[in-house]
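Hi R.,

Here's the chain you asked about this morning:
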Amino acid sequence: MTTVGPTQYISGLVSSLDWSNVIDELMQVYRSQRIEPLEDRRSDFEEKLSAWQELSSKLSDLKNAVEAISGGSAFSVYQATLSSSATDNPESILTVTASSSAQEGVYYLEVLQIAQAHQMASKSFSSATDPLGLSGTVTINGVDITVADTDSLYDVRDKINSSVDGVVASVLKVSDTEWKLLLTSEETGTANQITVDDPEGLFDFTTTVEAQDAILEVNSIQITRPSNVIRDAIEGLTIKLKRAASGTTITLTVSKDLEAIEQNIQQFVDAYNEVHSFVSDQFTYSEGTEKPLMGEVTLHGIQSNLQSRILQTVSDLPDGWNALTFYGVSFDRYGNLSFDSSEFESKFSEDPDTTIQLFTSVASSLEDYLDDVTDPYTGLIKTKTDSLQSQIDDINEQIERQEFLLDLKRQRLMEQFIALEDALSQLRALSSWLSQQIEASFGNYT
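And here is the predicted structure, written out as tokens:
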């Protein structure tokens, strides 16, 4: 009998049947029955998870806008306006910026003197790179600088810069044959004046620019500061002095920045409309497509709760002042929120305190609800996304199990077809042997 070799394991070599392709087709049938439905379910859950995550991002943006209003920072924006009858450009003399801690008011400013940094210059030297031929000690701001006769002007500069705090040393080229060592205080004001003790007269430093404090007159009261940037004179204001202008009075008016306040309210309106647009899109049916969260009761509940809080009336405020609708914030027939700045400006100019109280009260209610919805540990959306992720993880495990079972199935089918090829090969060999024997037998009779 002919021995069967490994070639019968080639698909269809003996049987002429491409059983490898047959197995692939069978596996595809099994996959379509057992795995593809799971993959479809997983895809549905992933789309829902992605949709909830998108909503979470939009609600977080809304929460940020609401927090600015509830905390009062949306209304704690001030502008500083400068004017003067003596100049068309008061900003060339000073500038003022207001922070959230500023207070409304009017001030009259006059810059009598700006602060200056102390500067000193040495006697002249013929070179900056050649040895000075000087030796001794010079004391700058209490720090001894030892000078060797081999030191150049640049060497002395570097020794000062590496040893003395608050002073910058530099070398000035006056001409091709004249060089000077300069000392400049890093800070302005008389308190930062440079002190030099040069008993041997190595450098003979002299003052070129006197140290000087800034003098600003505020409502006829003089204040002195070592810096031209004054932050502690009027609460919430940073005043930067640019030049002295004695006799020029500048009027500083600090007021609420109405435009910035309206922008903060508009950001809240826009953030809500982003949420509303998302929810509306999820609930809008188009033929042949279904949105991931269509018909989701929780989603509808979120929208309803947001709307009811925006529409609420504040009980401790008088009629006509107790709801956002009186301030130009209202819903249109499509559920979008709009903001009429002219209505807001009218209310705000009439009674800013009540206006702020109303907005902060409504925003606080919204913030409390949004905290419950978006809390990263116990929030409503966190519960939803965790549940979806758990279902996705469970489906992944099922798919992994089915993939394993299909691999086993494929292996068994391969073994069966290989056994078939082996059997057919042996039958073919046996048939060939029998034919040979029969032919031999007939040959003996002839």
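One quick note: Residues 57 and 329 are 23 Å apart (CA to CA).

Cheers,
M.
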